[in-house]
Every structure is written in structure tokens, then in C-alpha cells.
Amino acid sequence: LTTGSAAAASSPVDVVAHRGSSGAAPENTLAAVQLAIRHRADVVENDIQRTRDGELVIMHDTTLTRTTDVEQVFPDRAPWTVGSFTLAEIKQLDAGSWFAPEFARERVPTLAEWVAAVGNQAGMLLEPKAPELYPGIEVDLDKELRALPEFNRAVRAGRVVVQSFNHAWLRTYKSLAPDVPVGLLYGVRPTPVEIVAASTWAQQVNPALGAIDEATVHAVHAHGMEIHVWTVNGGADMRRAVNWGVDGVITNYPQVLRDILRRS
Ligand code: G3P
Ligand code: CA
């Protein structure tokens, strides 16, 4: 993971493991992180939310139902939102059986556990999910991350990016943490005006691959930023993105992308 205009045009493509190696292990668990490292991902991506008692945990959906057994363990707590459970309650949940029985021991990791698991073995792409649901989460995030030696080392090495779909929130976070590179997520094609505006404060523009074409890649590079595309799981799409010159490909199958890059 590199940031800055000089690196943008010439760096090799980063292999970014989306929610870890989530095609082969339950997403956002430590098993998925460990597998991503075994699959030689350059960067591991995650999703971050906050519990009722203020702890930061790794979870994509704003409810716990899809990726844990919360409905069996706490049947009377509908709609099972992340923010309505304490960390101690969430730690009781099985976060792996929904994916495959051999992952039954997986638990929802805290952010600190996740950062320690990645350590210096890969870069970190951190995505606070729906930060508008968690007032002040930018302060919690900055405080917690600064206390983690692995995070500080990764920042110094240029191996951390914080990204969000909520661009106003991301700007607030960036004002608290000006030394941490940030990436703007887009589900639709960013306009030329948006790309120019982003270049005044962001280091990455990270759109859905299906929303863009090669011209978007060139426009982002022309404004000194990197572009990492998501979520690219098929070989033909991976090759297309690489041929366009993207800086990173975010995928559930980092081992497939690594193999394609090795052959190209
Ligand atoms: O890293 C990009 C991607 O994670 C954005 O979408 O929904 O998987 O968090 P989502
Ligand atoms: Ca994400």
C-alpha cells in the first residue's frame, strides 16, 4: 500500500483481502485475517462498528444476524443491532458456523485484536461502517488506534488507509488524524468535480469496479490519488482492472489475484 502521486502510476497492484480472505473463511474473523496473510495479500480490509459499551469491533452488517448465532443466544433482543450489545455479549457469539462448521470457534474480533493479528504482515484498510450510527466514533477510533504499536508502525510505513462511504464523516476523522491517509468509497462513478474536490484532502478514490471505466482510473491518477476497486472476485474482472492500471484490487479471493499477477 502506497500513497501519493509519485507512487500512483508505477507501483505494482496491491492485493487487498476484502473482510480478510472471506471467500475461504468467515468474513472479518481472525481466521480470515490469517488466511489472507497465508494467501499473500498485501493489505487486509475490515469493517468497524461500536458496541453498546463503547468497544470497537469488526463487523460488516449493522445487525449481528447474518454472520453470528445471535438469534439463538439472545432470542428476545430483535433487531440485534451491533450497538445494542455489550462486548461481553458479542464475545459469546459463534461468528464462524454460518460459513462452515470447522469455524465454530471464531469470535467477533475487537479492533485491537484485528490490528494485532495483521501486525506488520500486511497493510491495513480500515472501514468504519455506518459511522453516522455511532456519534463520536472518530474520536474513539483515533484514540484506540494511537494506543496500538502495530498501528503506529503501520502508519509510519505508509501501510494504513481509513476509508468510508460517509465522506463528511471521513473528513471529520481526517481533521483529527491528518497523518493517516484516507480513501473515499463510491458505489457510483465519481464525477470529475468530485475527483477534483477529493484531491484536496483524500489520498484514495475507491469505487465499485462496475461503476467505472478506464477513464476514471486516469482521472484519479491525474489528480495525484490512488484508486482501489471493489469487490472483484472473477478472474476476467481482475485482469480488466489490472490492465486499466488500478493501484489495488479488493477481493474475497486474494490467492486468485496473486496467481494472476504472478503470471502476468
Ligand atoms: O473495501 C470496499 C468494500 O468493502 C466496500 O463495500 O459493503 O463490502 O463494505 P462493503
Ligand atoms: Ca468494507
TrEMBL record:
Coiled coil: none annotated. Pfam families: GDPD. Transmembrane segments: none annotated. Keywords: Signal. Residues 13-261 form the GP-PDE domain. This is Glycerophosphodiester phosphodiesterase family protein. It comes from Nocardioides vastitatis.
